[in-house]
Specification:
204 residues, alpha/beta, Rossmann fold, 7 helices
Length: 204
């Protein structure tokens, strides 16, 4: 009986896995879920631009997400939407982004770097001290990826900021191939889990 029950359970799990794969890869379900989760841009004037950390390497190379966020933050600064730009990121990421900004004409006095915060929650708390308490910043143009924005915005609002969303990679929401839909499914699942964790422990 135990063996039969185990066999039925394995077959059921296998069938559910196949169904989940088909739904994720070949239907519009991932895009619908992502669009409900995403926060779209609402770009305008603010007291500061904050580019959240992503991935940096010890040789100074920036990962894709980090570079996207840095470039968008620099573009927003050059459009005159804020008088200062803050680059976050550990392992030299913030400093690499600052060097990129300097090479693209952003003045050194407009750049602030912070590189000791391992999570978005830590980044929000630190910015509450460095920007809001010490420099009187009340509004920020926040630059994470589009699926990360809902959680990031909530954390920065808890830290006392008015947040204007300026997310990157909005094109991921239109995933048109099975491969892109599978990637989108993974990102949505990760972010839903992170949101649930933050709400469970009262961080949002």
């Amino acid at each position: 009986m135990v063996v039969r029950t185990w066999s039925i359970g394995c077959r059921l799990l296998g069938a559910l896995t196949v169904v989940a794969f088909v739904v994720a890869a070949f239907t519009s379900a991932p895009k619908l879920a992502a669009r409900r989760l995403a926060v779209m841009p609402d770009v305008g004037a603010a007291d500061a631009i904050v580019a959240l950390g992503a991935t940096g390497y010890v040789d100074g190379t920036l990962g894709d997400a980090s570079l996207r966020r840095a470039v968008l933050g620099i573009r927003l600064y050059r459009e005159g939407l804020a008088p200062r730009i803050v680059f976050l990121g550990m392992v030299g990421e913030a400093q690499s982004r600052a060097r990129l900004a300097l090479s693209l004409g952003v003045p050194r006095e407009a750049i602030l770097t912070e590189g000791e915060e391992p999570t978005t929650r830590d980044e929000a708390h630190r910015m509450g001290v460095v920007l809001r308490e010490r420099r009187g910043v009340r509004s920020v143009l926040l630059v994470p990826d589009v699926l990360h924005m809902r959680r990031a915005r909530g954390l920065f609002e808890r830290a006392g900021f008015t947040v204007r969303p300026a997310p990157t990679e909005t094109g991921i929401l239109g995933a048109a191939s099975p491969e892109r839909r599978l990637v989108l499914t993974r990102h949505v699942a990760q972010e839903v889990a992170a949101l649930a964790y933050h709400r469970l422990f009262g961080y949002l």
